[in-house]
Amino acid sequence: MDPETDAHLRIGFIGAGNMAFGIAKGIISGNVLPANIKVSAPSKRNFGRFQEIGIAGTNSNVELVCGSDIVFVAVKPHLVREVLNGISPYITDRHIVVSVAAGVTLETLQELLPENTSVIRLMPNLPCIVQEGALLFTRGSCAKPADGALLRSLLQHCGLVEEGPEAWLDIHTGLSGSGVAFGAGRVLRDSGKHPAQLRSEVCTPGGTTIYGLHTLEQGGVRASTMSAVESATERARQLGQKSTTRK
Ligand SMILES: NC(=O)c1ccc[n+]([C@@H]2O[C@H](COP(=O)([O-])OP(=O)(O)OC[C@H]3O[C@@H](n4cnc5c(N)ncnc54)[C@H](OP(=O)(O)O)[C@@H]3O)[C@@H](O)[C@H]2O)c1
């Protein structure tokens, strides 16, 4: 992707919360100017940290949409319907709408936006803020491969960005969105070693790490971790169902 393209894109975030801030921080560490990014929320209470990095805020989602090419929907899942209903009349074919709301499906997003809208569902996580995010996205039926490539290019400074099937997104939410576990994760990825091998390499017999691991095993860490990912995945599915049934 031509770096010049990114530099001229106008990017809007609906919602001024933690996730919007994390992605915005990641994006501006690339070549997008803060002046080309805007954020909207009903109150001004979360605008301070955006303003500190040169991003302006507005209380109008419509104003934000009209001045943006890429619109990130970063409100809580139960508010997505209301927010999309409000902006839908202002979405044109120049827009790409990217939702980060956990559990809200492409089907629901597309149903709430004008026909043929380029919609992308993205699941990021907070380490975007330190450019160490793990981001997975799925394109809606009208989002072209070029739209995906544009998003990927825009998010490249947020961390590892992959495109995958929608069925993976809830799992990614449970694993990476809810269970931020980088550090060891990066070593694992870069070394290509099996986790058990890596673990044994950091466990000097009788050393501090094996003592720590002993405590974790006593607490049933493996079973708890598996259950935690399962519960968070299930919750993501429940949130998606709620937003589908609430007409
Ligand atoms: N946090 C994470 O780690 C994470 C990871 C992956 C995905 N997500 C997804 O990201 C989304 C946002 O989560 P978050 O943690 O960033 O939430 P958050 O910190 O609670 O922020 C929510 C933001 O939405 C704003 N808002 C509320 N109603 C609005 C409306 N009608 N129009 C525009 N903005 C509105 C709030 O405004 P005020 O500032 O006025 O209160 C606030 O700025 C969620 O859907 C979540 O599933 C989060």
From TrEMBL:
Pathway: Amino-acid biosynthesis; L-proline biosynthesis; L-proline from L-glutamate 5-semialdehyde: step 1/1
Residues in Pyrroline-5-carboxylate reductase catalytic N-terminal domain copies: 10-103
Domain of life (superkingdom): Eukaryota
Domain Pyrroline-5-carboxylate reductase dimerisation: 183-239
A Gene Ontology molecular function term of the record: pyrroline-5-carboxylate reductase activity
Complexes and interactors: Homodecamer; composed of 5 homodimers.
Name used for this protein in its record: Pyrroline-5-carboxylate reductase 3
Lineage summary: Eukaryota, Metazoa, Chordata, Craniata, Vertebrata
